[in-house]
Amino acid sequence: MSENIRDVLSELIDSYGINILEDPDRLSQFLEDRCALQAEEAFHLTFALRYLLKCGWRVNSARAVLDEEQEERLCQQLGFTAGQSKEVAALINGAVADKYEDERPSGEGFVATPGNLRRISGGISNRPRTMRMRKKSLYNGVILLAAMLVLGVLFFQIGSQRTPVGDELRIAFFAPMSGPEARLSHVQLRAAQLAVERINFQGPLREEYKLKVVGFDLPKDPAKAVASVKKAMKDKSFLVMMLGANNGNVAEIARLAESIEAPLIVISPTPPGEEELMDAALPYLYTFSLVNDAKARGKVLSYFATQALHKKKIALYYDSSDKLSEETYLSARKWAVGFGAKTVAELSYNGKKESGHTAAMRAIFESGADLLIIPGTGKDSAKIVSEARAAGFQDTILGEGYTDKTYADAGEALKGSWWVNEVSALDPPIRSVLKEYRSLYNENCPPEDVMAAILAYDGVRWIAAALQSTPGFRGEAIRHTLLATKNLPLTHATLTIDPRSHMPLNKAMAVVYCAHDKGIFQRRIRVNKD
Fold it and tell me: Where is each Leucine-binding protein domain found (predicted)?
């Protein structure tokens, strides 16, 4: 439930002291969690506090209360409107005023009257006239030095800020462009460029800018990967980073994104692990993922199995050598019980070793299960389905990652099976994008790469929507806009970001049904909150 930002700010100051205003990162986390409906006001407040702190403002200083000159400076330096600047100043001044109201002594103020002033020995005439002049000169010198220091800081900040070059808003795309994952990375880069072409064709962003994406090779070695990204991002014209195929460098690049204050969008078809996106108990401030994680996938599988297919006795068969498959299995097992079903069989196999599945399928058949769930990427699903049918299991099968290759490998064995995909090439809007891909590049997108391509395509669309509405181009401003994403229509789903994890919140997934053999797209589903 969202709360009023003024009340929340007052409670935070009561709990943590007035100095919480000097820790905008911590304050931002509190406000994001409790003031979801006032995300824009929370961003403006923390954005302004960071700027003021860099300029020397402190809550205990004599000028803690903002005046009209400081309000005007917020408009000039941060791109605020006059109304936004006044709202921010009112929030800060209200908090500071409350603090000093508590410290001010009660009663009437001191009034100077004859008889209550302390006598100065020797009278004023005995004070040397040069003393005041020396103090005044020293005071003026200190003020001048402080002003020069503030100007120096401001010029440094302006020089270090990311800003467009000419009429271009640039995105840096990092992925392994050489080695075994090069083909997938090039497909993603092409899809990202297709999105750029489509967005620019619709008209300039903010009525003056066009989008541009530039690809960079990402080495597999973590140290070399960080050095490569750091070198590329020295160019201040790159406003946002995209990370393609996950080759194990997500955590390192997420930490780098924090230090250079540049948002990072992860579009890998293999979702990053929770530990890769989290800094201790909180997510990295500048890193976001467009992909459902294993927990969300497992929950959707169990929800569809129990609430749509009405199955009560479930068997699970997963790849123990694949982290995504195993984590999805654990989530599916947990939620199957939560949705009222019973797991009657839980078996695993090692996908890195060549082995058959006949014995496991026979055991599942004998368990009395009325549904077999196969969590994971789907690379072994066709073989598993074929061997399940051969072992006598004729009940419903629910898997992940259906593609045309699944049908080519399993054929009629797919009859009666259901599939849940993050992205499906059978989804009409996605088929339209794939048609444009073929038209632009004169070749089809490989079936096994459709998910990666669409995630890259929608990743660019997400960034474009953020750049369109962000006040200014500072990384902090873009980060807050990405964090406030709610009900953004993309090609493969409608996107809302969970501020607690920086990952999609209850994002829908595509359902495919094989009535006879080849799959047919049905609809997108999400877990009903009720």
Answer: 169-512
Averaged pLDDT of the chain: 86
Q: Which H or E run includes 266? A: strand 264-266
Q: Look up residue 291 and give its amino acid.
A: V
Q: What whole-number distance in Å separates Cα of residue 327 and Cα of residue 109? A: 68
Cβ–Cβ < 8 Å for 251, 287: no
Helices (H), 5-81: 5-16, 24-34, 39-54, 68-78
Beta bridge partners of 121: none
Q: Encoding tokens for residue 456? A: 């890259």
Q: Which of 517, 526, 150, 482 is nearest to 304 (CA)?
A: 526
In the numeric block, the tokens 């990743």 are attached to 459
Taking a C-beta distance cutoff of 8 angstroms, is the pair 175, 452 a contact? no
Lowest mean pLDDT among 54-63, 364-373, 486-495: 54-63
CA atoms of 314 and 293, how far apart (whole Å): 22
pLDDT band at 125 (very low <50, low <70, confident <90, very high): very low
CA atoms within 13 A on the CB side of 250: 24
Helix/strand/coil for 166? coil
Report the alpha-carbon distance of residue 185 to residue 178 in Å, rounded: 9
Domains defined along the chain, listed by start: 5-103 (no CATH), 168-292+428-493 (3.40.50.2300), 294-421+512-525 (3.40.50.2300)
d(CA 412, CA 518): 8
Count CB atoms within 10 A of the CB of residue 214: 17
What is the pLDDT, as a whole number, of residue 98?
Answer: 63
Angle at which helix 381-390 crosses helix 358-366, to 10 degrees, equals: 60
pTM: 0.72
